[in-house]
Specification:
The complex is a heterodimer. By secondary structure, chain A is mainly α. Chain A has a domain of about 210 residues: Rossmann fold, CATH 3.40.50. In chain A, helix 3 crosses helix 6, helix 11 packs parallel to helix 13 and helix 25 packs across helix 26. Chain B has 3 domains: about 270 residues, Rossmann fold, CATH 3.40.50; about 110 residues, Sandwich (Immunoglobulin-like), CATH 2.60.40; about 30 residues. By secondary structure, chain B is α+β, with helices and mostly antiparallel strands. In chain B, the strands form 8 sheets. A 7-stranded mixed beta sheet of chain B has the order 2-1-5-6-15-14-12, sandwiched between helices. A 5-stranded mixed beta sheet of chain B has the order 19-26-25-22-23, with no helix packed on it. Chain B is elongated and about 130 Å long. Classes of the chains: A mainly alpha, B alpha+beta. Chains A and B meet through loops of A and helix 3, helix 5, strand 25 and strand 26 of B. Chain A: Belongs to the STT3 family. Chain A: One of its GO terms (biological process) is post-translational protein modification. Chain A: One of its GO terms (molecular function) is metal ion binding. Chain A: This is Dolichyl-diphosphooligosaccharide--protein glycosyltransferase subunit STT3. Chain A: It is an enzyme of class 2 (transferase).
Chain lengths: ~775, ~450
């Protein structure tokens, strides 16, 4: 008995063909939606590289495109981390640049002279289409094509992924998520088929992933974990052995070809799980071999002894190797994954990055919307069947959720899993309510028996419907959807489901309309979040005028352009490390520290200079040949991401290296408040950062009350004075202020008294140095 | 015909005369207080004119010629013979005088015992002047001049001064020198001299009391200086003289002892020559660096490269008015610096190549942005500073050795595994197949 009638005069091949055509069209539309929703940034602003890290990637890509791969590989950048320099080739993941370089060369070989910048800007949206496809393939392996399409649609527009892949967000994550999903897909495929070919494909994409993103360690641990869980569940098969060994051997060897990774896969703790599982699999495989040759009793004794000895030996080896320093101990970034307070205590430089903060609850909803609650349901659905590949998604869900809770940026790795699980769940829901069969025990069972003998699932479904449904005019789409859903995933549950089900059309309609409405809201939410929250380049800021029109605040580029045009080509610019890549990319000047935070001491040096009084900071500046100091000041326009708000991190990082000279409590008031007004502490008021930020700020207010709009505090009318620095440039909205470091005084005085002299202050009469005491 | 030759000769001699002795220019402004007569210093001024300086005289209150016009110094050198002048025209303020030095103009300051703008300026140069009205006094050696006119033997041998100078007559104030390495003392007060406002013996107790109360001790002894040069960081030179009488004709002609003329004239010429950048003037003509066995300078070096650094130094010769290669520096050093010197080595002169200094060294095994720094600072001499930035990079990917003897275990391992795989394959394909077929055949039978 059916809730609604289905056409019966359609041949099975028509069903299959139409279904695949619809799938292709749907995938095409999903890709188009994924790409176009990421173009808000270009439409609202312009084709520009966003934020901080992308500026370096862009600069590196230009080097790669202009000088070729070998020069890029050997690139030593003397303008970064002055005067230490940076061995770029050995300290980056070159996958992203190499990808753009290849695209650039292909396009130019085809006589399409596309600017390298546009390739960089549009790379992330382009790869999001690939991600949608890879997610489709992956989810198809989990359930069926319809779930795959849903997952592709989710990943295409979900804000959690868009946040890292809008046009212009030229970062490693842009291609890494595609590689992550495709590696997982190949792994699942290899596991299912036991194919060394797919294992090799997984390894090759793993290599690409290693070359592209430091997050590859996630794959390095996910796949062994999956294999291990399968072993524990007693699901060892030769397919698992083939898949894992081909992936691990080829993947590890190829990943060691990336200079930045080098010998890490055999020497650091993060990679030990993969190696350990590899060894364990050999043992298990060997045990299987033995078992097929000896009796059960002998085997059990043998197993007992060998398991004990292997465990003892393995542990001893690990301890010894770690103790000897052959295996590097866990890194700080790794510890901070387990103990959220760790970074703040021991490595402030990691904690100071906003995307390393623990995730706030609202951001889960912001990034995932309804997927937040579809996700657990999807996991539940996966538990019901629990094939090998489902175990993978379940583990992924657990790990991904934990890491996303610890660090904001790891929301990105959770998102694909959420999309997959939600899609499986939602597709299960739709399947159930789309299924035209009504629970009518007797008839259904007969039908099942009759149809289950046919060969292919789709044919079987089609045939069954042909049998069941009389010819009536029902919407073709409904038909196909139900066909697909029945064809794909439900065969296994069929006998169980036959007794339960949905009665009538109205109940179906209520649920389905609700689902459709939810999906609609999801789309609305995603579009809104994308256009409002995630499409700002952060290099260019936007505010709205009273009449609602957009007002562009372009202080950063104004200041960087000033630097580019008005300073010596080898001028050294000191700023907090956030702006290092931008200065290098846009102003093309030498920087002391940048967003590649590899040298904590160097950053602490800058922090010390910023948080010390002028006369202490000056020798540091001179020693590092600093010509200009750049600060970001938002007090005039209300830009909250300015240096005064980041100042405590500078103090903390400097304190980590010079605990005797810089102490964080000194920068708070007696009451323990962080203030910049006349109650500010002495250390705060004397610090170079404070002085540079508020230098001549009071003059703007013409004797009126001096307000800092970010901190909502009233500043003293007498502003700070500078003796060792000269104001060189202040941008239109005062966001960027550049100060020039004065040369040593001509007459060998300290610059403070030299400045006093220049302003006409009388010096106190000094006394000659007394070399001996006068006799009384 | 003869007349024409004479005219030509005259023109030639004039041309030579107008050719400056100084390395920086020949225009010289003398700011002369109206109370002083130009004729009293005729020996000094004439000497300068003979050397080729174009003297322009101006009173402190004159408006023209301005010392700085539109931000550019109008003269190459300035002499301020205004020891007692309290008010100047608007363009001469202490700040402008320091500004002059920054524009590489050289200045001679004559100080007096009164409180003037110049005395307060002197403290900016780390000179510590005694209270106003306290000239240098010495009762030794016994002589017929007042106690304030002191013969000072030139005991402080500076390379700028002619050796074997007779004592110099001096009348004026002494000053203490602050702890500033840019000061170049030329003439120190005699050990027996002191500064006081009275020459009477009866006032001696009062002087000692005042010294104690002031907590300054007695302004006395040979640590006081009377003529001190100052070389700014940029190389501009200034000279402080505690009493203008030093330059006067009277002191120049006065005999120190019977038959021995004072050294004043020569001393004045020597210190003026130093101040006007005639003597002890050096410059770095250029410096190059290249790898050993190469000639072109590299734009970057690889760690552990052997490099040659050479620099060329000239000294100004005031008699010929030319820059001549100078190999006389024996204590010059080269530093190879990144934050701190990684290598500090002597930079000796090259035999047979005048003016050339060269050293070969191995770049440390450390990549980064290094600087070749030559920083030669000696009192009186022009400070030599030369800094060349060069990146030192790690070896390229193809510059490492291909085969390592230490890696033989790995080579052997790889080769034996490959060989084993081939042998295994051969055995598997050839041997096992036949065996199984035979077994199959046996079963079938």
């Amino acid at each position: 008995m059916l809730a609604y009638s289905l056409p019966s005069d359609i041949s099975p091949s028509t069903f299959v063909n139409t279904a695949s055509l619809v799938r292709i069209v749907a995938l095409g539309l999903i890709s188009a939606a994924a790409i176009s929703s990421r173009l808000f940034a270009v439409v609202n602003f312009e084709s520009i590289i966003h934020e901080f890290d992308p500026w370096f990637n862009y600069r590196a890509t230009r080097v790669l495109a202009s000088k070729g791969f070998y020069e890029f590989w050997n690139w030593f950048d003397p303008t970064a981390w002055y005067p230490l320099g940076r061995v770029v080739g050995g300290t980056i993941y070159p996958g992203l640049m190499a990808t753009s370089g290849v695209i650039y060369n292909i396009l130019h070989a085809l006589n399409l002279p596309v600017d390298i910048r546009n390739i960089c800007v549009l790379l992330a949206p382009g790869f999001s289409a690939f991600t949608a496809w890879a997610t489709y393939m992956f989810t198809k392996e989990m359930k069926d094509e319809s779930a795959g399409l849903l997952a592709a649609a989710f990943i295409g527009i979900v804000p959690g992924y868009i946040s890292r892949s809008v046009a212009g967000s030229y970062d490693n994550e842009a291609i890494a998520i595609f590689l992550l999903m495709f590696t997982f897909y190949a792994w699942i495929k290899a596991l299912k088929t036991g194919s060394a070919l797919f294992g090799t494909i997984a390894a090759l994409f793993y290599f690409y992933m290693v070359a592209a993103w430091g997050g590859y360690a996630f794959i390095t641990n996910m796949i062994p974990l999956h294999a291990f869980v399968l072993l524990l569940m007693g699901r060892y098969t030769n397919r698992l052995y083939v898949a894992y060994c081909s992936w691990y051997a080829i993947g590890t060897l190829s990943s060691m070809q990336v200079p930045f990774v080098g010998f890490q896969p055999v020497r650091t703790s993060e990679h030990m799980a993969a190696l350990g599982i590899f060894g364990l699999l050999q043992i298990v495989a060997f045990a299987q071999l033995i078992r097929s040759h000896v009796t059960s009793k002998q085997f059990q004794d043998l197993l007992f002894v060998s398991v004990i000895s292997a465990a003892v030996l393995g542990m001893a080896a690990m301890v010894l190797l770690t103790y000897k320093g052959w295996i590097a101990p866990w890194t700080g970034r790794f510890y901070s994954l387990w103990d959220t307070g760790y970074a703040k205590k021991y490595i402030p430089i990691i904690a100071s990055v906003s995307e390393h903060q623990p995730t706030a609850w609202p951001s889960f909803f912001m990034d995932l919307h309804m997927l937040t609650f579809l996700f657990p349901f999807g996991v539940l659905v996966l538990f019901r069947t629990l094939r090998d590949e489902h175990v993978f998604v379940i583990i992924y869900a657990v790990m991904g959720t934990y890491f996303a809770g610890v660090m904001v940026r790891l929301m990105l790795t959770l998102t694909p899993c959420v999309c997959v699980a939600s899609a499986v769940g939602l597709s299960q829901l739709i399947d159930t309510f789309m299924d035209p069969r009504e629970p009518d025990v007797g008839e259904e069972e007969e039908k099942e028996d009759g149809s289950s003998t046919t060969a292919t699932p789709s044919k079987k479904a089609a045939k069954k419907e042909k049998n069941a449904a009389p010819v009536t005019g029902v919407g073709a789409i409904d038909d196909i959807v139900s066909t697909l859903s029945i064809a794909g995933g439900l065969e296994k549950d069929k006998s169980a489901k036959a007794k339960t089900g949905i009665f009538g059309l109205d109940t179906r309609m209520v649920v389905l309309f609700n689902t459709a409405a939810m999906l609609l809201f999801f789309v609305l939410h995603c579009t809104w979040v994308t256009s409002n929250a995630y499409s700002s380049p952060s290099v260019v800021l936007a505010s709205s005028n009273p009449d609602g029109s957009q007002h562009i605040i372009d202080d950063f580029r104004e200041a960087y352009y000033w630097l580019r045009m008005n300073t010596k080509e080898d001028a050294v610019v000191m700023s907090w490390w956030d702006y290092g890549y931008q200065i290098a990319g846009m102003a093309d000047r030498v920087t002391l520290v940048d967003n590649n935070t590899w040298n904590n001491t160097h950053i602490a040096t800058v922090g010390k200079a910023m948080s010390s009084p002028e006369e202490v900071a000056y020798p540091i500046l001179r020693k590092h040949d600093v010509d200009y100091v750049l600060v970001i000041f938002g007090g005039l326009i209300g830009y909250s991401g300015d240096d005064i708000n980041k100042f405590l991190w500078m103090v903390r990082i400097a304190q980590g290296v010079w605990p005797d000279e810089i102490q964080e409590p000194n920068y708070f008031t007696q009451q323990g408040e962080y203030r910049v007004d006349d109650q500010a502490s002495k250390a705060m008021k004397d610090s170079l950062m404070y002085k540079m930020s508020y230098y001549r700020f009071a003059e703007l207010f013409g004797g009126g009350q001096v307000v800092d709009r970010v901190r909502q505090q009233y500043l003293p009318k007498q502003g700070p004075t500078l003796d060792y620095l000269d104001e060189a440039f202040t941008s239109e909205n005062w966001i960027v202020r550049i100060f020039q470091v004065k040369k040593e005084d001509l007459l060998g005085r300290d610059l403070k008294s030299a400045n006093g002299f220049a302003q006409g202050k009388k010096r106190k009469r000094s006394k000659p140095p007394v070399k001996r005491r006068v006799l009384a | 015909m003869f007349r024409i030759w004479r005219v030509l000769l005259l023109i030639l001699s004039l041309a030579i005369l107008s050719y400056a002795r100084s390395s920086t220019g020949n225009s010289l402004l003398v700011v002369l207080d109206p109370s002083l007569s130009k004729d009293n210093y005729s020996i000094f001024f004439k000497g300068l004119e003979e050397q080729g300086y174009e003297l322009t005289f101006r009173a402190p209150k004159d408006v023209t010629p301005a010392i700085i016009q539109d931000g550019i110094a109008s003269f190459a050198h300035v002499i301020l013979f205004t020891p007692e002048t309290k008010t100047y025209a608007k363009d001469i303020v202490p700040q402008a005088l320091v500004d002059l030095l920054s524009k590489n103009t050289n200045v001679i300051f004559a100080l007096g015992s009164k409180q003037t703008p110049l005395t307060s300026l002197a403290s900016e140069f780390s000179l510590i002047l005694p209270p106003p009205g306290t000239p240098l006094i010495s009762h030794f050696p016994e002589r017929d001049t007042p106690a304030t006119v002191v013969p000072i033997p030139v005991s402080f041998p500076s390379p700028a001064l002619t050796s074997g100078l007779s004592p110099v007559w001096y009348s004026g104030i002494p000053f203490a020198l602050g702890n500033n390495p840019l000061l170049v003392p030329f003439l120190n007060a005699p050990s027996e001299s002191f500064a006081a406002d009275t020459t009477e013996d009866s006032g001696a107790d009062a002087i000692v009391d005042a010294a104690e109360r002031g907590g300054e001790g007695l302004w006395a002894g040979k640590d006081m200086s009377v003529v001190t040069g100052f070389q700014t960081i940029d190389g501009g030179r200034a000279l402080f003289v505690g009493g203008i009488e030093l330059f006067s004709d009277e002191f120049a002609k006065k005999e120190v002892t019977k038959g021995v003329k004072s050294g004043n004239a020569q001393f004045a010429r020597d210190v003026a020559a130093w101040t006007f950048q005639e003597s002890l003037v050096l410059r770095v003509d250029g410096s190059t660096h290249h790898k050993v066995n190469e000639t072109q300078p590299g734009d970057k070096y690889t760690t552990n490269d052997h490099v040659v650094y050479s620099t060329h130094i000239s000294k100004y010769n005031p008699t010929t008015c030319t820059w001549e290669p100078f190999s006389g520096l024996t204590d010059m050093q080269l530093e190879f610096t990144m934050l701190d010197p990684h290598i500090r080595t002597s930079l000796p002169p090259v035999q047979g190549k005048p003016g050339e200094y060269s050293v070969t060294f191995r770049i440390p095994d450390r990549h980064g942005v290094f600087k070749f720094v030559v920083d030669y600072k000696r009192k009186g001499w022009t400070h030599l500073h030369s800094s060349t930035t060069v990146p030192v990079v790690p070896p390229r990917h193809d510059e490492y050795p291909r085969f390592l003897s230490a890696a033989w275990p790995y080579y052997v391992g790889a080769i034996s595994t490959s060989a084993g795989f081939v042998i295994f394959s051969v055995l598997w394909l050839a041997g096992d197949d036949r065996g199984s077929r035979r077994r199959k055949g046996a079963k079938a039978e």
